[in-house]
Design a protein that fits this description.
It is built from ten helices and six strands, in the order E-H-H-H-H-H-H-E-E-E-H-E-H-H-E-H. It has helices at residues 10-16, 22-29, 39-48, 53-69, 75-95, 104-114, 154-187, 214-217, 229-233, 244-265, and strands at residues 5-8, 119-122, 133-136, 142-143, 201-204, 237-238.
Length: 286
């Protein structure tokens, strides 16, 4: 029996573009631009003889912990940690491909491979302090194959149910961890640097309820009459084609919740005029 779950990491990105390899990212991060690695950062990489950002960040994280244990200042380690984090994020953004730059054959091959798995997990780069993370927690299971139907024999069905339970448990654990990190960020007093564990962001589910701030809700109705959040949340994730009306409803719900939560918790990031939803033209819904 082949593998039924897939863990996607930086290796997949490297296979799409060699720019995502750590050697390439390090070379990019050493360039002359705002947010690049400074001399102290580069000295750390050279001392440990590596271009691996994860390895350097792990050592700096250990340094922060040890400084606290020994009663010494954590500030210089935190400064280096955040500087290296920021340079990694800047390098990734500078080399990131546009969707149209990826050959259609590559996209087709990735799609064909992913259809083989029941659950796909991604180790996305969320270990950055700077960006604000907007997380939509699906919390469901993937349907694969023709209509996502399972074999009716007891063995595979039992295995599928066990994997579905495991997937929900791991999703719940990651959700709880992310919420804890967001709360630590929000609890940091003004003027103080958030601890390394903290992250800035929001997390919600399709069925989440929220009293949206007036600034967001005034011209952006929630559409509860047209969209049933509970029903949308029950729609299983699939690589198969879904009804256009359902697809638009899912997109609008995610868009509306993203704006509402950002307005509620990080309104400083939404300066200027806010976006307004535009319905897809009828031709796109066929």
């Amino acid at each position: 029996m082949g593998w039924e779950n897939l863990l996607v990491g930086n290796g997949m990105s490297i296979n799409v573009s060699s720019y995502f390899a750590y050697d390439s990212l390090y070379e990019e991060a050493c360039g002359d631009f705002d947010g690049s690695l400074d001399d102290d950062d580069i000295a750390i990489f050279e001392e440990f003889g590596t271009t691996n950002f994860e390895a350097v960040l792990a050592k700096l994280r250990d340094g922060i912990t040890l400084a606290g244990i020994l009663g010494r200042s954590r500030k210089p380690y935190r400064q280096r940690f955040r500087s290296v984090q920021a340079a990694l994020g800047a390098a990734v953004r500078r080399v990131h491909l546009e969707w149209t730059e990826v050959p259609s054959e590559t996209l087709a091959a990735i799609k064909a491979e992913m259809r083989r798995y029941d659950a796909i997990f991604s180790t996305s780069i969320d270990d950055l302090h700077g960006p604000c993370l907007v997380v939509l927690s699906a919390g469901g299971v993937f349907r694969t194959g023709w209509r996502g139907m399972l074999d009716q024999c007891a063995g595979p069905s039992s295995l599928k149910r066990a994997e579905a339970l495991l997937y929900r448990q791991t999703t719940a654990f990651r959700t709880r961890t992310m919420i804890e990190r967001f709360k630590v960020w929000e609890a940091t007093p003004p003027g103080q640097e958030p601890p390394p564990f903290a992250r800035r962001g929001v997390l919600f589910r399709i069925a989440s309820t929220l009293q949206a701030p007036e600034r967001w809700a005034r011209e952006r109705p929630e559409r509860l009459g047209r969209e049933d959040p509970e029903k949308l949340a029950q729609y299983k994730t699939t690589f198969n084609k879904i009804e256009p009306e359902v697809a638009e409803a899912l997109m609008h719900r995610g868009w509306w919740l993203a704006g509402a939560t950002l307005c509620a918790y990080h309104t400083d990031l939404l300066a200027g005029e806010l976006p307004v939803w535009r319905d897809l033209p009828p031709a796109r819904l066929r």
